[in-house]
Amino acid sequence: MAAAAIELTDVQFRWRPQGPLVLDVPQLTVARGERLFLRGPSGSGKSTLLALLSGVSVPQHGSVEVLGQPLHALGGAQRDAFRADHIGYIFQMFNLIPYLSVLDNVLLPCRFSRARAQRVAARSEPQAEAMRLLDHLGLGGDLPQRAVTELSVGQQQRVAAARALLGGPELIIADEPTSALDADHRAAFIELLLSECASLGSTLVFVSHDRVLEPLFHRALCLSEINRAGMA
Amino acid sequence: MAILGLTLRSLLSRRYTALLTLFAIALSTALLLGVERLRVEARASFAHTISGTDLLVGARSGQVQLLLYSVFRIGNPTNTLRWDSYRDIARHPAVAWSVPLVLGDAHRGYRVLGTTTDYFRHYRYGRGRVLEFAAGRPFDDLFDAVLGADVARQLGYALDQSIVISHGAGSVSFVQHDTLPFRVVGILRKTGTPVDRAVHVSLAGIEAIHVGWEGGAAPRQAPTADAVRAMDLTPQTLSAVLLGLESRLAVFRLQREINDYAREPLSAVIPGVALQELWDLMGVAERALLAISACVVGVGLLGMLSAILSGLNERRREMAILRAVGARPLQVFILLVSEALLLAGAGVVLGVLLLYAALWLGRPLIEAQWGLYLAIGPLALREWALLAIIVGAGALVGAIPAYRAYRYSLADGLTVRV
User: Fold this and answer.
1) Where is the domain boundary, B242, B269, B296?
2) What is the ipTM, given to two decimal places?
3) Are strands B198-202 and B110-115 parallel, antiparallel or unpaired?
4) CB contact under 8 A, B2 and A80
5) Disulfide check for B331: which of A187, A227, B240, B327 has CB 3.0–4.6 Å away?
6) Residues of chain A found within 8 Å of residue B413, distances taken between Cβ atoms
């Protein structure tokens, strides 16, 4: 059986060596293909957890394994490469590089990850694959060629989703991707994201305050329940 | 490669600021190179004020002083050299040719130089260029005069015009020798040397001006031209002598012989050496000019620094995005350094193009105005070095915001805390 998508064991993290403990998670496992809804009040350590999952930071104590790979065993550059190869990331907002076209923004991961580029190429031409994803997310027509500044916030978030999904990375991390959207757009966005994740078989970690969305996921977790540092 | 494409797009998206920065660097580069070119050319041109002459001989004095009065016609000789000594030296077997010079008089502020027609044959300037006549011919008669280009142009003189030459070197003279007018028989082409500012007459002509002045006071009765013609007008003393040798190998030997001349204290100097010494005296101004243009380049690069730095905070978001798709902090660093490098590199290239355009446009003007011939050749090694320094300084300046961006992207990770 394949390793879990995410496996946290006895993780402790502080931003500064003498600083307060921000994260203290004895155990967290996310299975492959699982869709996890993660919520938590501000300051509960969500950003920190995402930094650990994406390999930007490493815990001072404990281990973070993503897709069976213990991240603390990798150097900084290797973790960056790992992220490029295996993780799609969606921000709350401002996901796009302003000087690149919509299409180039979607193709951005291919610039930094050969593995990802090859995986895209295995399906079809990278451009065609990007166009297919955009089309699927309702961004067809001449939109891919346009400047990102002409897009609405909802469109921008969907472009970000297309970028995260390009090349079918095993893990998608979405950091409150719907908080800038109104209710109608939010529903449409989640639906698209979930169906794409399902068809690609990607694991999804979805961070949000919006409990209305909880039922759409396999599992919902409150970070403050698993983070002992937050309880103090 | 991934990064370079991004750098280009990023710069293109800020094309107005980028272009301004680029132009600032290009202009300052062109200025620096232009000053360097002018400096080198002026130096070369100065060093070639007189060429082909192996030795300058005058009464005992410092070499710069001898050079100043005999070549630049600035100041007066402290002492003269006897005609006999000149005959002696001219007969020396090592001497191929000799040109005697007598200075002392002025025509409306321009120095009058008494010499022989050998002057027009042997005088060289630049890289062996001979004196050419824009009009007319060398002097022949006692009262013939040949004008330098500036004299003719400034005073509006044409061929066959009568001019009056006064005794004494001042621009205003109390006594004008208007009974003995000289006739303009030749006008020299512009040389960019002090030759342009001289009125050339024969040795006898100089003597003729002084007839009746032997006592030091103005003659009561000005002599008539015919009476003057009847006199023996061989000069008793000379200001300086230009020597050309049979073999340049003999220069030092002859120089020593002349310096040790028993019958009269004389000095012989090598023009190139004396010119070098004189130029070094003026080197401060030259270096100051270069320093100022280097400062202009510095200002151009500082402009770039402020343009990149001021945009940096807004770009933290962009860096977080790049980090999210897998960019390393080092790549973020490279993104910003390559931006500075690209601006500096393109600025330098544009600067060189500007320089050549300016040279091409300005060359006729500069040659006409100052007689300075600017060669439009490929970049000299020193100029390449200057360009490399500019680009290197650009990269170094770019490293400042790049390092900040590097720190930001390490600290921010994927979350921007602004």
Assistant:
1) B269
2) 0.84
3) parallel
4) no
5) B327
6) 51, 54, 56-57
